[in-house]
Amino acid sequence: MIPIAKKIRVLIAKPGLDGHDRGAKVVARALRDAGMEVIYTGLRQTPEDIVEAAIQEDVDAIGLSCLSGAHMTLFPEVVKLLKKRKSGDILVAGGGIIPEEDVPKLKKAGIKVVFGPGTPLRDIVAFFETAGKGA
Amino acid sequence: MREAVPARKGAARDSVSGLVDDLLAGDKRAAAKLISLIEDDEAEATDALARIFPHTGRAHVVGFTGPPGVGKSSLINRLVRRYRSRDRKVGVVAVDPTSPYTGGAVLGDRIRMADTGVDPGVFIRSMATRGHAGGLALATFDAVRVLDALGMDIVFVETVGAGQSEVEIATRAHTTVVVEMPMTGDAVQTMKAGILEIGDVYVVNKSDLGSEDVLVANLKFQLTARDGWTPPVIRTAATEGRGIDELADALDRHTAYLDQTGLRAKREVARARLEILENAQRLLSRRVANRSRLGRAFDALAEDVAARRLDPHAAARKLLWPTRPREK
Predict the structure, then answer these.
(1) CB B117 to CB A49 under 8 A?
(2) Do B26 and B171 have their domain in common?
(3) Tell me: the pLDDT tens digits for A72-131?
(4) Residue B300 belongs to domain spanning
(5) Do B288 and B257 fall into the same domain?
(6) Scanning A74, B46, B179, B273, which has its CA 20 to 30 A from the CA of B168?
(7) What is the span of the domain harbouring residue A112?
(8) Which chain A residues are Cβ-neighbours of B110 within 8 angstroms?
């Protein structure tokens, strides 16, 4: 039996209209296997939905997955709404098909890290472990 | 007393009393933070719960149990929308299992409840069992209290997909709903003791799959009146929204029955007894684990039992009544 202990809580979310969530599910599974509590909210979520869920679930971090090309609109919107709701301490990571040249712009907009295709799962796990420890 | 909470996150530092004030003012973020404090078993949680308690007791608590994949989350989603259309505020606590190997969990009940989105009158919290047996997490009903104090009129509690003996929910909820689906077993399955005895309302979901008549008949055959209430059997198809009005009516009828017969007050006392005992057990476990006088006495008794100088029953009595070892 695993005793009660503080757990890292992560929301994995799919903003926007693309219906491909294999990647999000693989990441959710990897974080689960690393001992975290992962809330997966399913497809086609608005930034408002995602921020509301993150607040109610009191997560340490959010992982956004987007393969549709709408990341430049959707990812910064999530960060903006979090700040508006006094929850700017929740870290936001992005993943999906994201062109190299967009990465610095996303980081400037408050996305902590961007994981492109081929990122080893251990790198993703390591990011959320650090996020959960309040670093 | 505005002590700082050692937050999980570097940035967020809220005092417990500040959080409780915000909660009572209807702030969802404060509710979420308080639930985390309770889940993580922080020292401040006891203080927070003590402050919250006087503001609870208003919400009607409905528990949902039944096998995995039977449609509990989808039914709750439909009911949330129905009660919202009548302007009732609705809370949900949905429990999913924690891995016994890694301590991790995937909490997926929210997917089925995505319809409610950003509705200010809805609060949904996913919760992992964190090793607690019985289909619930240890913190589940303290989280329900937080949602009660937040001003929710009705709180739905979804257990982990439960098998045959996860019956704890019935000792905690005002109304217990047992959800089943067709084609999952013969008449003997419905005669078995356990989960099929605890319902105040039974639901045969996925009735669109057909052959639901057999299950409805089998359930009705074994159901008997308890405390003067004969549990109804409701047919639903949650994804199509069929039977939801009938289910909500059944819940409302049971609520009225509890009030009219005084059964609610009786159940509250039964639940209070259980909670006092549970907390006493937890306190005792904690006290014998640390280096207090009681902890040392406990260690000495353990040595005595291991050396066959004392039997475990006598040791337990000695632990609780050191000066009167013969009592009870």
Answers:
(1) yes
(2) no
(3) 999 999 999 999 999 999 999 999 999 999 999 999 999 999 999 999 999 999 999 998
(4) 270-320
(5) no
(6) B46
(7) 9-132
(8) 39-42, 53, 57
